Amino acid sequence: MTIGTAQERFRQLLRDQLAPSLRAMGFKGSGQEFVLPNEELWVLLGIQRSRWSDSKGLDFTVQLTVAHKKIWKALAESRGYGERPRSTRFYGPAIWQKRLGALLPGGADKWWPVHADTDLRALGTELVAAIGEYGLPALQAQMSSTTNGDEDSYGG
Question: Which candidate among 46, 78, 136, 154 keeps its CA 20 to 30 Å from the CA of 38?
C-alpha cells in the first residue's frame, strides 16, 4: 500500500526515526542537519537528498563534517562563509568531511532510496545502525585528533 509521496515518507523517516535516534546519541537538530555540541569544533551530520528526486522516489546520503572552530572562523572571514559550516557543502582539505558510505565495509558511496512504499522501520534501523557503528566512531576519532592539537592533519 502506498502511503504518501517519497518526500513525505522521507520527512517521516527523519522525524520519527532518525532525529530521535541522533538525539539519543547526543546530537541536537532537526530536519536534515544535526550538530554534536562541542566548544572547540563544529561536528555535523547532514542528510543530503539527490537533486534527481521526485514524488515517486528520492535518494539520500549522510554527510559527516568536523571543523575546528578557529580554522572555520578564518575560512569564513576570508571566503565569506557563514557562521558555521554546512554538512552538505564541500570546503576542501582544511575541513574533514566524509560520506557515511565511505566508512561502511567496502567504502563505496552509499545513497539510500525512499519510495512511497519503502519500509521506513527497516530503513531507519539500517541507517541508525550504520551511523552508530561507523559514523559516530569516525566523528569521535576525528574530534579526538583535532582537539589534541592535530588541527592541520584532518583534510580527509
Answer: 78
Q: How wide is the angle at C-alpha 98 spanned by C-alphas 59 and 93, nearest 5°?
A: 130
Q: pLDDT digits over 101-138, tens only?
A: 999 999 999 999 999 899 999 999 999 999 999 999 99
Total-model pTM: 0.88
Q: Is residue 15 part of a domain?
A: yes
Question: Given the C-alpha cell 538525539, which residue does it identify?
Answer: 23
| Dihedral (CA of 92, 97, 103, 109) sign | negative
In degrees to the nearest 10, what's the CA dihedral of 145, 109, 36, 153?
A: 20
Whether residue 95 is contained in a domain is answered as yes
Query: Per the domain annotation, does 132 fall within a domain?
Result: yes
Q: In DSSP terms, which residues pair with 49 in a beta bridge?
A: 60
Q: Which domain holds residue 130?
A: 6-145
∠ Cα 147 39 92 (to 5°): 60
Domain count, the chain: 1
